[in-house]
Amino acid sequence: MKKLLIALSATLATGAALAEYPDKPITIIVPFAAGGPTDKVARDLAEALRKPLGATLVIENVGGAGGTLGAGRVAKAANDGYTLLLHHIGMATAPALYRNLSYKVLDDFEYLGLINEVPMTLIGKPSLPAANYAELNKWLEANKGKVNLANAGLGSASHLCGLIYQSTIKIDMTTVPYKGTGPAMTDLIGGQVDLMCDQTTNTTAQIEGGKVKAYAVTTPQRLGTASLKALPTLDEAGLKGFNVSIWHGLYAPKGTPKAVLDKVNAALKVALKDAEFHKREEALGAVIVNDARVNPAEHKAFVAAEVAKWTPVIKAAGQYAD
Question: d(Cα 122, Cα 256) in Å, to the nearest integer?
C-alpha cells in the first residue's frame, strides 16, 4: 500500500510539473555561430514561439565540427523540454560525414517538426563565358578536370549541393573548401574559383548586384522573388528530379515526456503561421513548411529519407571527418 501511494504521489507530481510546463526559459541550441542563416531562423522562430508557448526562449550558439558539437550536447541534455535543438540538413548528413559521431540521429532525439526549406542557386564567377545553363553545361564538358567548385567547408550546404551536382552530371570538379561562405564568395567574385552552389540566403544579394552569374535553382519550382524568378530550375535544364534544399527542424532529447512534446509541437504549428515570421523567412528566400512534415512522425520519416539520400553520395565522394 505504501509503495502504491508513493508511486501515485510521484505520478501526480509529474503530471503537475507537465501541466505547468514551461515555467522557466527554454534554451534552443543552434549548432553554428551567431549571425549565420540557421541562427537567424532560430531567432525568428524563438520570437514566434514566445506567445503560443508562453515562455521566454533563449538562443545558445554551440558551433564546431559541422554542427555535431551542438547536436551532441542536446542529445545528452536533460529530457525535460527545456533544451531544444534547431538544426539544418546537417542532421541527415552527419552520419555519413563523421566516423566518430557521438549520437545517433534517428535514435537519440525526439522529432518536433520541420520548419522551412531554403532553395539553392548554382552561380559562377563573373568572367565565365557561359551566359545560361545550356552554355554552362557545354563549358563544363569542354573543361573537364579544370573546373574549381568552391564551398564553405566540409558538411556545409554548398559542399553538399556541390557533391550531388557533380554526381548527377557525372563530371568531377576540383573541390575548394573555405572557412565559411564569406571567403568562398569573395574568391568567386574575384575569379579565383569557377562555381559555387549555395543557399539563396547567401547568394541573392550577389546575384541582384551583378557580382556573380546565376545559372539555375536547385528546387523543382522557380523562385518567387521578382529578381530571381527568371532563373530556370535544374530540373527544367535537363537534370530531371534534381531537388536540393536546405531545411531546418526542431528536436528535443530522447525521452522527453509526450505531454511536453505535444505542447511544443502545438506551439510550433502556431508559430509557423505567424505573419511576421513568414515575412522574415521570405526575406531570407526560405519557404515555410505547411505539410505533414510539421508533425513529429512525418518529420522523422523525412530525415530518415534524407539520410538514405545523402549517405551514398557522401561515401562515393570519399569525404569524411573524424
Answer: 40
Closest CA to 173 of 155, 189, 197: 197
CA dist list (Å): 203 to 5, 48, 122, 282: 62, 26, 9, 14
15 vs 157, residue with greater confidence: 157
Domains of the chain: 2-117+246-317 (3.40.190.150), 119-217 (3.40.190.10)
Average pLDDT for the chain = 90
122, three cell numbers: 548554382
> How many CA atoms does the CB half-sphere of 306 hold within 13 Å?
26
The pLDDT of residue 6? 47
Secondary structure class of 250 (helix, strand, coil): strand
Residue appearing with cell numbers 565565365: 128
Per-residue pLDDT reduced to its tens digit, 34-63? 888 889 999 999 999 999 999 999 999 998
* Residue 225, all three cell numbers: 522573388
Whole-structure pTM value: 0.84
Q: Is the confidence at residue 317, as pLDDT, over 80?
A: no
Place of cell 505504501: 2
- What is the rounded distance in angstroms from the CA atom of residue 30 to the CA atom of residue 86? 6
**pLDDT tens-digit series, residues 192-235:** 999 999 989 889 889 999 999 999 999 988 887 777 888 999 99
Q: Report d(CA 265, CA 247) in Å as an integer.
A: 17
Neighbouring residues of 90: CB distance < 8 A, sequence distance ≥ 6:
31, 66, 67, 68, 71, 155
Cα distances (Å, whole numbers) of residue 246 to 94, 117, 167, 172, 259: 14, 6, 18, 23, 30
Q: Taking a C-beta distance cutoff of 8 angstroms, is the pair 178, 193 a contact?
A: no
